[in-house]
Amino acid sequence: MIAQTQTYTHADDLPAPVWDAFRHNEAAANVVYPFALKARESPRGSQEQLWIAYFDSTDQVTFVLSCTTRSLGDYPVFIYTTNGPAERQPADITEPLESLATALRRSVNPARVFAVFACEAVTREFARIWEVLSEIKVEGPYYDATFTFCTKTTLTPSMNLRPLPEDRNLTIWLGQAEDSHLAWVANLCQQFAATSEPYTLDTDSALKEAKVLIKGREVWIHLIQEGENGEWDVASIVAASRRSENVAAVTKVYTNPRWRQLGCAERLLRRVCKELLLEKERVVLYVGVDNNAAGVYRRVGFQGLGGSGEVEGVEKWLELGFDKQRVNLGYW
Q1: Residue in 239, 242, 263, 143 with CA at minimum distance from that of residue 188
Q2: Peptide bond preceding 198 in cis form (omega within 30 of 0)
Q3: Which of 18, 218, 249, 278 is a Cys-bridge partner for 14, taking CB atoms 3.0 to 4.6 Å apart?
């Protein structure tokens, strides 16, 4: 057979080989697979969705590109590959990525492609190809990250967390956010986005995102109160909106500056991972290479963040943006 690409505009049209490819490495497929699962139930034509699959000469799907839209707007281009790290040399990936880029160029206006996110080698090669094909220059990295994971085996016990200071009379509560917590969650979503240039949120967008997360029971909060008569506040949030059969991703791990240095993020993240791992085999996370919270994630049990050598399943992912003067910036 001849290698080829196939394009789909609704997730329910994705054939079995695409779903098989997702399941081949469910953790690495997390940026694409959970959205495809949700989108199978969406009305046709309700949102612009595009998946492009690359079938190799044995009719196996080895690359899937998504160019999709969610409630807050357009996602970046995401690319998932079944190729392992040793199979990501130019000889392995250039031809498939050229085919994906050509199919994408036929399907969308180049201004729609504002960024691409994938494992590092795939991102760099696709961006190089797209820059030539679209004549839109690549900008600096938006997100340079380590893809890591936690399992039941690696999750550390809560006894490792430092206790709250006795002299501050702090009371805490951890659990899933409810409608009454909307304003707090929206505020921290907006603060988190402010640290994630260029994907900042205005107040209305942050409120909309918080509503979606709370309605889907996809965000946990760490409430805190100082003194018996003090007002309750949200110290930290953790979201988990990307879930498939065996894998969940945690995102938006953020602590209100007022409550830092109290172990709130670590306490909440460990609680969320413990709950997710009751049903899932693995919790995954992208950690910015310059993120000072890497130590928090390591203490909770996320692997490959301590500089002690390579860990299978931990790898570099990269998001590159394109000239903001010539594209329509979305969000994720």
Answers
A1: 239
A2: yes
A3: 18
Single pTM value for the model: 0.94
Q: What is the pLDDT of residues 284-301, one digit of tens each?
A: 999 998 888 899 999 999
Gap between the Cα atoms of 11 and 23, Å rounded: 15
Q: What token pair was written down for 267? A: 């306490």
Q: How high does pLDDT run on average in the chain?
A: 94
3-state secondary structure of 171: strand
**Structure tokens given for 292:** 């000072």
Q: First-to-last CA distance in the chain?
A: 37
Name the residue with tokens 């494992």.
Answer: 119
Report the C-alpha gap between 36 and 146 in whole angstroms.
Answer: 23
3-state secondary structure 251-306: EEEEECHHHCCCCHHHHHHHHHHHHHCCCCCEEEEEEECCCCCHHHHHHHCCCCCC
Token couple for 252: 């938006």
Over residues 14-73, the pLDDT tens digits come to: 999 999 999 999 999 999 999 999 999 888 876 689 999 999 999 999 999 999 998 788
User: What CA–CA distance (Å, rounded) separates 325 from 332?
Assistant: 19
Contact 262, 170 (CB under 8 A): yes
Rounded CA separation 326/164 (Å): 50
